[in-house]
Amino acid sequence: MEAPDHPAIPFAFCHDQKNFRLLELPPDLLNVVTSADPPVLRIKSSESAPAHAVLCTDNLAYQIRQVQSSNSIFLTKPAKDNHSNDAASSLDSHLSAIATCKSTLELHPVSGSAIPHLKQCLPLYFSNEDGSRPTPVEGRSKRDVFSNIPLADQESERSWVELMAFELDGVSLRPNAEELRSVWKAIRTAADSQGFDLSQQFLARDAWKEAEEDGCPRELVHALLRKLSGNGSQIETDWMQLDRVKFVRWTGAMVLDRERDRIPGGVSITAFMEAWKDELPESWRAHASLDLLKGAYSQPTPSTIVITDDYDAIEAPAPSESTNNLSGKASLRSRKWHEKFKNARR
Amino acid sequence: MPSIPLYPPSHNQLDSCASNPSSASSSVSVSAPVAAPAPIPNPLPPLLHTPSGLAVIEMQGTINMPSAELVHDLDDDDDDDDDERRDGEEMEVEMDDESLAKGGQAAKHNKRPKSKAAYEAETAIGRLVFPYYSPTEPTDNKWMKRVHLYVGRHQRMTGEVKKLVNPLAVIRRRQQQGPVGSGKGTANEVSEKGADVDMDVDVDADTTRDGTAGENRNGSTAKGDDEEEELEIVDIVRYKILFSQRPEPVSG
């Protein structure tokens, strides 16, 4: 048997089995969990089927997959030897298997945009013909909405800004295109009447005063300015500077969307470009270019242009792409799994 | 579905849940500040140590244990002469070899603890040996290449210590943090205290066995249980002992 100078460690099975699960930690997540001040992770799942469980940090998201094993995986813990008359062992502790796991949980990185999720669950904010703006009585806070999006919160926040979603009295909303147009109109009017230039720095409160007089909530103006400025914080008090590319692109899409309502079949490119430039501050007129709208429009004829339906989701990576990557990786992995056990059997 | 929080490891509340037969019999005072019980020495080589003492042993195959009910049945009509009956209890180790089971039984017989509590709690499987491990040269990791698990006197499994490519987080349902009303996610000291109080209630519930203590406890913590499930990472395991081969016979 074993050499005497190598002490045997008694190994026992504890009948009071505990419930533990084993979760594989990819390097990125391991760094987070073992950092000096680790955050609380969250397991989320989408409300609509298929509801995969997704483990999220602020900026990472992993789909959880349960992987069955034909092996027995014991979780062991040192336990005190209760018997005093055991002369065979020089140690006074042994190993006790306190849990048996038939599966482990694997994590697969998930990427994608939260825009489809937000579009699905955020009610539209709009004006009635008489100018009144109904607020849904029942609604969910931003926090509640985010906790149901199976993605990292940072990703959800990005999409939130992208869609110009906002919270009004604790209810999360997103504006429809018409509402955005009227906000934009109010901001332009404010710029004209107060003489500030949207291509330069200006005070946000100068911009929303006008919109508020039209009955438009300040939160919505902020949501629009936040998206167009590219930096989210302190819009209320600080001088702000619009991001030229974002701004020019957004106005282009807005104008094209407006034109579609007028002429659904497509508007002439020349007319559209003129209308677009008219929305821009003088110094930015030259920056209007169809390249900025790549992917957001189609051309029914060479001289006409029409906006695509989901143009507001264009900036984000297409979700279908990420799903393909995921399944590709998974099949590679499962193949390896079989090879591993084939080798072990030999 | 609301999101479920998964708390990172705190390394302050190790023993409150993990099985520890000896602590169940020792009483813990609620009011006095509880001194942490002396840690149980970890018999494994230090490389395999984790703050909580948890380790992972994986083997190809299944070990068939007598069901807990069987053990309890035996225990219920416990008297001085039931040693015979216990010896008759079968432990099957399903490794394509029946003699393994008999060997295991023999080993158990030799080492079987006399104390009733210990017997209830565990069934011996075998003994782990690290034949190349030397405590004097702990930095030399060649010992990881071989681990034996002796089951009885005639069977041996050979395995190795493997570094996990992706370390494993050991997760469990988070325990209630003391009385309702104490805030969630407070300082570690508070949660440690809470765990101790809970443990004490557990001990009571176990010893009275009439269900009342257990009910009270459920009542006092029901709010938290119903509201939302909480998980925590108890520890992170970076190595595992893997037995991927069939057992082989050895001569005594």
From TrEMBL, chain A:
Keywords carried by this UniProt record:
DNA replication
| UniProt xrefs under InterPro entries | Dcc1
Q: Could you tell me where the Basic residues compositional bias lies?
A: 332-346
- Highest taxon listed in the record's lineage: Eukaryota
Tell me a GO cellular component: Ctf18 RFC-like complex
Output one GO BP term.
DNA replication
Q: Which Pfam families match?
A: Dcc1
Q: Where is this region: Disordered?
A: 316-346
Q: Which family does it belong to?
A: Belongs to the DCC1 family.
The protein's name in its UniProt record: Sister chromatid cohesion protein-like protein Dcc1
The record lists the lineage as: Eukaryota, Fungi, Dikarya, Ascomycota, Pezizomycotina
TrEMBL record, chain B:
The record ties this protein, via InterPro entries, to: Ctf8 (IPR018607)
Q: Which UniProt keywords apply?
A: Cell cycle, DNA replication, DNA-binding, Nucleus
What segment(s) does the record annotate as region Disordered? Answer: 1-28, 70-115, 173-229
**Domain of life here?**
Eukaryota
A cellular component term (GO) from this record?
Ctf18 RFC-like complex
Q: Does the keyword DNA-binding apply?
A: yes
PANTHER family named among the record's database cross-references:
CHROMOSOME TRANSMISSION FIDELITY FACTOR 8, CTF8, CHROMOSOME TRANSMISSION FIDELITY FACTOR 8 HOMOLOG (S. CEREVISIAE)
Name of the featured protein: Sister chromatid cohesion protein Ctf8
Task: Name the Pfam families on file.
Answer: Ctf8
